[in-house]
Amino acid sequence: MKSSNPILSRWGAARDTGRAVSFAKQPVGASLGGARLDDHLANPYAPGADPAAATTTSPDAVTMDDVVVRTGTTLGTVALAAVLSWLLLPVDAAHLDMSYGLALGAAFVAFALSMAQSFRRTPSPALILGYAAFEGVFLGVLSSTVSTYISPGVVVQAVLGTFAVSAGVLIAYRRRWIRVDRRFAGFVTAAATGFLILLVADSLFALFGAGDGLGFQSGGLGIAFGIVGVLLGAAFLALDFRQVEDAVAHGAPREEAWLAAFGITMTLVWIYLEVLRVLTIFNSDD
Predict the structure, then answer these.
(1) 12 φ, ψ to 5°?
(2) CB atoms < 10 A from the CB of 177, how many?
(3) Distance between CA 225 and CA 199 in Å, rounded?
(4) Four-CA torsion 129, 130, 133, 139, nearest 10 degrees
(5) What's the helix, strand, coil split of the chain in %, to 5?
(6) Which of 160, 167, 175, 214 is the most buried (most CB within 10 A)?
(7) Residues 6 or more apart in contact with residue 174 via CB below 8 angstroms
(8) Cα–Cα distance, 227 to 216 (Å, whole number)
(9) How far apart are CA 111 and CA 39, in angstroms?
(10) What is the pLDDT of residue 66?
(11) ∠ CA 159-160-161, rounded to 5°
């Protein structure tokens, strides 16, 4: 069960053998109703994939409760760090530079920790929770600054918007309105790659004196770009749900719950930032 997120997706690579791993071509229900002879071709933890792999009869197999608890712990760490940084790091004019510096430092540390976890063969709770804490510091200062200087109340709207998107994806996934298969994953990954390239290009143009960059930070184009980002985040959340379901169905090791928490947390942070971008641009244009 790999972590799917718009930045550090490792979907498609098996951790232990390096062989390609793909989602099942058959509907998810087929894997839940009993093992199939070709299940191991679609999931590295299915019977026949690896003699050393966990099976559904193993007492150490991951359960949905494991995923929920780890995800709640990771998201709780993000939220706690965000609230504390909002309260303890002032964003008034006299202290803004210091708070910005701490926020940017926290963002770089969070990125480094996420990269370190991404390239590990096994999940590290310390790395994952460390990432969550530093990401929370960055989000707290950013949210406080946006709420203070740009659009008061937008943070509450962004949090509610993130919950709404997540609930919508969960409902759509559970009712099978979204067909999460190899083609879906490939399309989303390609779209996210293009999105990130444009985002980096926009930032570089803005940094080196091209004013508003490529125009993705304001106006109608900025809102449209942000909506695309939200949709991409929603698509990666559906991939996360599919991977969790496959891991539970095929008896992945219990430690994989931390990877699920890592992937879901990164995806929700992505969605929150894109929702915040859209609402900030929309409110500032009114």
Answers:
(1) 100, 0
(2) 11
(3) 9
(4) -110
(5) 65, 0, 30
(6) 214
(7) none
(8) 11
(9) 35
(10) 92
(11) 90
Measured between alpha carbons, how far is 248 from 63 in angstroms, rounded to an integer? 6
* CA-based radius of gyration for the chain: 20
**Calpha distance 211→207 (Å, rounded):** 8
How far is the C-alpha of 203 from the C-alpha of 225, rounded, in Å?
14
User: Whose CA is closest to 227, among 281, 166, 157, 150?
Assistant: 281
Answer whether 135's CB lies under 8 Å from 103's CB.
Answer: no
Q: Which two tokens stand for residue 58?
A: 């193993």
Tokens encoding 87: 């309260």
Centre a 10 Å sphere on the Cβ of residue 208 and count the other Cβ atoms it contains.
8
Q: End-to-end CA distance of the chain: give it in Å, rounded.
A: 44
d(CA 24, CA 43): 7
Tens of pLDDT, residues 55-84: 444 668 889 999 999 999 999 999 999 999
Q: Determine phi and psi for 61, rounding to 5 degrees.
A: -75, 145
In this structure, the number of other CB atoms found within 10 A of the CB of residue 18 comes to 8
Q: Which helix (H) or strand (E) holds 8?
A: none
| Contact predicate 138/106, CB 8 Å | yes
State how far the Cα of 27 lies from the Cα of 25, in Å rounded to an integer.
7
Distance CA 132, CA 113 (A): 9
> What pLDDT digit, counting tens, does each position of 162-211 carry?
999 999 999 999 998 988 988 999 999 999 999 889 888 877 777 776 55
Give the count of beta carbons closer than 10 Å to the beta carbon of residue 162: 21
Per DSSP, the three-state class of 26 is: coil
